[in-house]
Amino acid sequence: MTILEILDYAGVAVFAATGALSASRKQLDIIGYLFLASVTGIGGGTMRDVILGTTPVFWVLNPTYLLVCVSVSVILFFTAHLFGSRYRVLVWLDAIGMSAYCVMGAAKGLAATGSPGVALVTGMLTATFGGILRDLLAGEPSVLLRPEVYVTAALVGSAVFVVATMIGLPLAATSALGVVSAFTVRAGALKYGWTLPIGKASPGRDPNDVM
Hints:
Layout: H1 3-25, H2 30-52, H3 58-61, H4 64-79, H5 86-113, H6 116-138, H7 151-166, H8 171-192, H9 207-210
């Protein structure tokens, strides 16, 4: 397999694992595991392919991706209870999946359009959309609403990959630089609470108070 194919499978597998861990936290049955793992694993890539007009989407053309999601969910159905803190494992696996997937998404966007701007958008969407769906469906606090940086890490990884590609570095180097950059930013956010400046507006009022 090529480096990008490895990153693609790795991103799907790791994101599927975070979906299965969310199912474990909610004490769902095996169908719940399969559903959350699959939605999380293929969600970002599906959004990317739809935006780029690449249809059928990647997992329809290659059902192996679905088998990866199913395998991961079945394994974690029997083993998730062994983890001391499933949420801690979830967020760190999410960081790994995001780092791999932002590079994969940027690479597909760049290959399809040749536009660095489009590559940044597809990199960010591929890396974050599955996690957003996971949190929404599982009723977990959304990664987007947490104070530490998340989308920014995907943007950094995508940007490093695109710039490195445009200056002519080999694919192995550009992929490694993108993955390491994204993971470093996200890991720093998780460990040290890195955030971006927030707006100075006051918190929103309850809708019933302004109607």
